[in-house]
Write a structure and sequence with these properties.
The complex is a heterodimer of chains A (391) and B (269). By secondary structure, chain A is of the alpha/beta class. Chain A has a domain of 114 residues: Distorted Sandwich (Coagulation Factor XIII, Chain A, domain 1). Chain A contains nine helices and 18 strands. Chain A has a six-stranded mixed beta sheet with strand order 5-6-7-3-8-9, with helices on both faces. The two termini of chain B are 22 Å apart. Chain B is globular, with a radius of gyration of 19 Å. Chain B has 269 residues and is an all-alpha fold. Chain B is built from 14 helices and no strands. The chains are: A alpha/beta (391), B mainly alpha (269). At the A-B interface, helix 1 and helix 3 of A face helix 2 and helix 5 of B.
Chain lengths: 391, 269
């Protein structure tokens, strides 16, 4: 085994999965006989996933996005061991806790208290262990007065709160989360977010399926875009999120994507330092010059934005907002004082026509640059240092 | 699946919790609650006793009421273990589709629930033994072995039937019919002597059935020496190995068939 393989938490090798879907709604022997006699197969093969191949490293917060029916949940269930792959193999290194759904095994006829013990047992807790964490669970769920009532008398929000409170007690190395955010109200989502933060701090491996690109960009360090059962893109969350958002745009024609890739010299973005030299490293408070050149007609508005390497948006004005009239028809210069913390950043740039929606050309990921550590505000964290004073 | 994993800590916890839940839910909402576990065999016994003790008198056996009750209780245990085991996988489909855990725990928990119920029923049997003045003999020590035998056959069948039931929902109906026939093919409400009077061969065939052998053995060990067992029928103790071999054969077949198919339960339910 290679040295690097020790870092792999989930190794998915060339995995395919297909289901036999019975054509007649019948699980009976009679139908089977009829099919044999008539020489029919009696089922159709449905392949939600084919030839999936990727790794998830230890400590990754891995997002999986894709439209309904793209195979996300099937993949998650295979990682969790619920489904066995037809082809390929999945190796999981570490104790895996699946939350395909919150509150697995919850029984409406049992009281909240009894359900805590049942659900806990499914997560691997003994009665004694649950006794010690019972108060924490009830506190977190804010259900003190309801624990002796039957679950069927709970509102759906209360059930979710209880389920989530038990779930976060689970101590595994790898967590599998399937759209847990989709069920709760805003307060619940906030709790989820702080739980995600905690998981990140603890360097747990997390696999998260979601439709919320904000969540992907905020928490994930890697993401995957599934489309029709195969991997469309694996990479930085912001790229994956952008690709996914674009694919959801009905009017978007993916063939244009390739055209734009080929005609890269229609729109160029370069960055320079104070001395006019092409640069990749800057100090805090240096001035960066961004030069833009294009060959398009009718460009009325230009935007240049700085993003953190993890896809977080920092700042990005456009000429229209700044009431700057484009003098030239094919070039512009943008200067910015880099009041930024140390780290890696990159530029996005767009050429627009008369309205914001009229994007002529868009550079998803332009030049990258680093802010080197010369100014010590890292201990405050954050992205920027704002002007401030104490009185 | 390693043997050592079968009763790992995590699996034991889960098994216990499933059995406890099953029991809690069984009499959920009823006023008498757990008392039904004792009342049901009592009433069944009362009916059987009136019908077969007074209306249709079959044979003359010492302590006939206890003899009858014990047979009914053991048969009910077998019936419950196989029926609940058979439907257990399908009825727990919600769990199977969401988390991965050893599937046999589900079948095990269903059969253990039946076992717990049997133990409660045996309390009723014990009371009737005292009331009827049944004298315990040393052979009573053999009694647990017969329960184990029925349990192993029942568990093996539960594995087999639960797997079949996932594939073919007809299984439960077919099994219902088989159990009806088996009830009368087993010397429960009639003494073995009734069959023996007509045909020795049929009697021998019937007692080869592990459940029949276990019930007769249990009656012999607890209630009365009058009971016809494999030993007394074949006049050779070694013949008892036949039902025991059948027991293990059924168990092994059930376990392998279940294990072979359990990987795909989640998607086939």
């Amino acid at each position: 085994m290679k040295q690097t393989e020790y870092n792999v938490a989930i190794d998915i090798k060339n995995v395919s999965k297909s289901f036999k879907i019975p054509l007649e709604a019948s699980n009976g022997i009679k139908q089977k006989l009829v099919n044999v006699i008539k020489g029919r197969k009696g089922y159709r093969i449905f392949t939600p996933l084919s030839n999936i191949d990727f790794n998830i490293n230890k400590g990754d917060f891995f997002g999986i996005v894709g439209r309904n029916g793209s195979g996300k949940s099937t993949l998650l269930k295979m990682i969790a061991g619920v489904y066995a792959p037809n082809k390929g193999r999945i190796i999981v290194d570490g104790l895996l806790i699946p939350f395909i759904e919150l509150g697995v095994g919850f029984n409406p006829e049992l009281t909240g208290r009894e359900n805590v013990f049942l659900n806990g047992a499914l997560l691997g807790f003994s009665r004694k262990e649950i006794h010690t964490m019972y108060n924490d669970i009830v506190d977190f769920a804010e259900l003190h007065d309801f624990m002796e009532e039957r679950l069927k008398n709970y509102s759906s929000g209360m059930q979710v709160r209880l389920a989530f409170s038990i779930a976060i007690q689970a101590k595994g190395d790898i967590l599998i989360l399937d759209e847990v955010l989709a069920v709760g109200d805003e307060a619940f989502q906030k709790k989820c977010y702080s739980y995600f933060d905690q998981l990140k701090r603890e360097k747990k491996t997390v696999v998260l399926v979601t439709h919320d690109m904000g969540t992907v960009e905020r928490f994930c360090n890697k993401a995957m875009f599934l489309e029709k059962g195969s991997v469309k893109l694996i990479g930085k969350p912001h790229k994956v999120a952008a690709a996914y958002s674009r694919s959801n745009d009905e009017s978007y024609d993916s063939s244009l994507d390739n055209q734009k890739m080929e005609n890269r010299d229609n729109f160029e973005v370069e960055i320079f330092d104070n001395n006019g030299k092409s640069a990749k490293r800057f100090n805090h408070m240096d001035t960066m010059t961004v030069k833009l050149k294009w060959k398009h007609e009718n460009v009325k508005n230009i935007g240049v934005a700085i993003f953190l390497d993890n896809g977080e948006y920092v700042f990005g004005p456009n000429t229209f907002q700044d009431k700057y009239n484009l003098e030239s028809k094919n070039q512009a210069t943008y200067q910015v004082k880099l009041n930024l913390n140390e780290g890696e950043y990159f530029i996005k740039a767009a050429l627009m026509g008369d309205s914001d929606n009229d994007v002529i050309e868009f550079i998803e990921e332009g030049p990258h640059f680093n802010i080197t550590k010369d100014y010590d505000f890292t201990k405050w964290g954050g992205v920027t240092k704002l002007d401030h004073e104490w009185r | 699946m390693k043997i050592s994993n079968i009763f790992s800590r995590k699996n034991r916890i889960l098994l216990r919790e499933l059995v406890v839940t099953d029991f809690k839910l069984r009499y959920q909402g009823s006023i008498l609650g757990y008392a039904w576990s004792l009342l049901k065999p009592l009433f069944l016994f009362a009916i059987m006793y009136v019908v077969f003790g007074y209306l249709i008198r079959l044979g003359s056996i010492e302590h006939y009421s206890v003899y009858l009750l014990l047979g009914i209780v053991l048969w009910n245990f077998f019936s419950e273990a196989t029926n609940q085991g058979m439907s257990s996988i399908i009825s727990r489909g919600d769990l199977l589709r969401k988390i991965n855990f050893p599937k046999y725990i589900i079948v095990l928990s269903a059969t253990i629930s039946a076992l717990v119920n049997l133990l409660l029923n045996l309390v009723v049997v014990a009371v009737f033994m005292i009331v009827n003045g049944v004298v315990l003999r040393w052979s009573a020590l053999m009694f647990p072995l017969f329960i184990i035998e029925i349990y192993i056959v029942g568990l093996g069948l539960a594995f087999l039937l639960s797997t079949l039931n996932v594939k073919y929902r007809d299984t439960s109906h077919i099994w219902e019919i088989i159990m009806q026939a088996a009830f009368y093919a087993t010397p429960i409400i009639y003494p073995m002597s009734v069959i023996l009077d007509r045909s020795e061969v049929v009697a021998k065939i019937l007692i080869i059935n592990p459940v029949a052998q276990a019930i007769q053995g249990a009656r012999y060990s607890l209630v009365t020496k009058d009971t016809i067992t494999v030993q007394s029928l074949f006049s050779n103790g070694w013949y008892v190995l036949i039902p025991i071999c059948i027991t293990f054969f059924v168990f092994v077949i059930g376990v392998f068939y279940f294990k072979h198919n359990s990987r795909y339960f989640a998607e086939n339910i």
